[in-house]
């Protein structure tokens, strides 16, 4: 079974430029998460989707960040314009929703390492 | 607000030794406590998880101990191996409308010397 796929793996941009990250979750996983992981820190949730609906975007800086999950499968996270402080690894994760057995295992992709110069 | 505090930041253990990583949480709404392992250049991968209705869970060389009254939980790695060298994150998850949301600790860099 293929894992969570993310691209690109690395991205270097100048500040004020736009950037986009793409995620393809594990087949059949209806829940998709975007996390940001700063150097030496744990992942922090940016947005969570249930199918195509964003059910938790409270941590997403909406002035410059946007995300979409068309057709409830692939997802794109965009930053426009990027700032120096956006340098981090952006992780995508997916899971299936099991209403009867508690929390689901989140499977993470390898991440996109963004460097803003 | 740091809701999950993890210690130590780094840990060096000899091969065959026991590695112990501790976490403390504040939010009593947390009801799911996983540990993730992350190798350089990879995303975190679930290692073991526990729910608060049990005080201990063991899977192979990995054990979670959970103290609900103290709001603390820990990961014990028995017979530590060089291949265990990685960054370990504890996390805490909520139910209800926040179902699926994980709050991670800051991570512990474990180095196991051969």
CATH architectural category of chain A: Sandwich
Structural class of chain A: mainly beta
CATH homology group of chain B: Immunoglobulins
Number of domains of chain A: 1
Largest sheet of chain A: 7 strands, mixed
Q: What portion of residues of chain A is helical?
A: under 10%
- The topology string of helices and strands of chain A comes to EEEEEEEEEEE
Quick one: biggest sheet of chain B?
Answer: 6 strands, mixed
Counted by DSSP, the helix tally of chain B is: 0
Relative strand content of chain B: over 45%
Gross CATH architecture of chain B: Sandwich
The interface involving the most residues is between:
A-B, 25 and 28 residues
- Secondary-structure class of chain B: mainly beta
Low-confidence stretches of chain A: none
**CA-based shape of chain B:** globular
Which CATH C-level class of chain B is it?
Answer: Mainly Beta
Shape of chain A: globular
In terms of quaternary structure, the protein is heterodimer
State the total count of DSSP E strands of chain A.
11
How many β-strand runs of chain B? 11
How would you describe the overall organization of this protein?
The complex is a heterodimer of chains A (117) and B (114). Chain A has strands at residues 5-7, 10-13, 19-24, 31-37, 44-50, 53-56, 65-68, 75-79, 88-95, 107-108, 112-116. Chain A is mostly beta strands and 117 residues long. In chain A, the strands form two sheets. In chain A, strands 2, 4, 5, 6, 9, 10 and 11 form a seven-stranded mixed sheet that branches. The N and C termini of chain A lie far apart (37 Å). The mean pLDDT of chain A is 91. By secondary structure, chain B is an all-beta fold. Chain B has no helices and eleven strands. Chain B has strands at residues 4-7, 10-14, 19-25, 30-38, 45-50, 56-59, 62-67, 72-77, 86-94, 102-104, 108-113. In chain B, the strands form two sheets. In chain B, strands 2, 4, 5, 9, 10 and 11 form a six-stranded mixed sheet that branches. In chain B, strands 1-3-8-7-6 form a five-stranded antiparallel sheet, with no helix packed on it. In chain B, strand 6 (56-59) and strand 7 form a beta hairpin. The mean pLDDT of chain B is 92.
């Amino acid at each position: 079974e293929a894992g969570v796929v993310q691209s690109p793996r690395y991205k270097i941009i100048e500040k004020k430029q736009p950037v986009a990250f793409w995620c393809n979750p594990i087949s059949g996983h209806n829940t998709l998460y975007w996390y940001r992981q700063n150097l030496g820190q744990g992942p922090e949730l940016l947005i969570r989707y249930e199918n195509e609906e964003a059910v938790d975007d409270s941590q997403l800086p909406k002035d410059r960040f946007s995300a979409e999950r068309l057709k409830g499968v692939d997802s794109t996270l965009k930053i426009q314009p990027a700032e120096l402080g956006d340098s981090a690894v952006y992780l995508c994760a997916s899971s299936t929703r099991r209403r009867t057995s508690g929390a689901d295992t989140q499977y993470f992709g390898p991440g996109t390492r963004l460097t803003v110069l | 607000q740091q809701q999950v505090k993890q210690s130590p930041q780094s840990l060096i253990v000899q091969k065959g030794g026991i590695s112990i990583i501790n976490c403390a949480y504040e939010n009593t709404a947390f009801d799911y406590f996983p540990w993730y392992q992350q190798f350089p250049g990879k995303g975190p991968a679930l290692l073991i998880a526990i729910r608060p209705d049990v005080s201990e869970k063991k899977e192979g060389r990995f054990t979670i101990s959970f103290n609900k009254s103290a709001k603390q939980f820990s990961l014990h790695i028995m017979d530590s191996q060089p291949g265990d060298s990685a960054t370990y994150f504890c996390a805490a998850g909520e139910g209800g409308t926040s179902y699926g949301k994980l709050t991670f600790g800051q991570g512990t860099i474990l180095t196991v010397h051969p």
